[in-house]
Design a protein that fits this description.
The chain has 168 residues and is of the alpha+beta class. It has six helices and seven strands, in the order βααααβββαβαββ. Strands 1-2-3-4-5-7-6 form a seven-stranded mixed beta sheet, sandwiched between helices. The two termini are 17 Å apart.
Length: 168
């Protein structure tokens, strides 16, 4: 009998698995841009631990293995910022990214004053852009990241219902 993927809050013990998963998952993004200095690839383990302590970090687990993750944080003016959504390459294309996105939106919605969600992705990251458009996000601008990659900034009204059902 196969195991189900569950989504839950990350804890401090997940830091190393998150760190390794993030490094694995963002290799394809680095290749797409010809830039292996993108932030998820140069982030330190201590920085991941700090985010676990301060942000809303959710993980998808298959048994004891972390196979997906996403971070969120309540920011100024009611904005829920979402970042570093990633799914292990062997599980991509099965809706897990959408489930993680919906779960972090739900978690951030519970924080006082959240009126919109905001995230960004590289301008060449078509798969990511498709996922975010299907989930109701619309482009609101662009900017250049510290690593030189042009990023598309997307937003969604927090009152808009999620496009995906979350199941544990």
């Amino acid at each position: 009998m196969g195991m189900s993927v569950t989504i839950s809050a990350a804890d401090a013990d997940d830091a190393e698995q998150i760190f390794r998963l993030q490094y694995l998952c963002f290799q394809s993004e680095a290749e797409l841009y010809g830039n292996y200095r993108i932030q998820p690839l140069v982030q330190s383990l201590d920085s991941v631990r700090a985010e676990l302590a301060s942000d809303c970090v959710l993980v998808a687990r298959l048994g004891d293995e972390v196979v997906g993750m996403v971070r969120g944080a309540a920011a100024e003016e009611g904005t829920g910022r979402i970042g570093k959504l990633c799914v292990h390459p062997r599980l991509q294309g099965h809706g897990l990214g959408a489930r993680l996105l919906n779960a972090v939106e739900d978690a951030l919605a519970g924080r006082s004053g959240t009126v919109k969600y905001q995230l960004f992705t590289g301008h060449r990251s078509e798969g990511n852009l498709r996922l975010y458009r299907r989930a109701g996000y619309v482009p609101v601008g662009d900017r250049t990241g510290e690593d030189g990659v042009r990023l598309i900034v997307l937003e969604k009204d927090a009152k808009e219902p999620g496009s995906y059902a979350v199941s544990a």
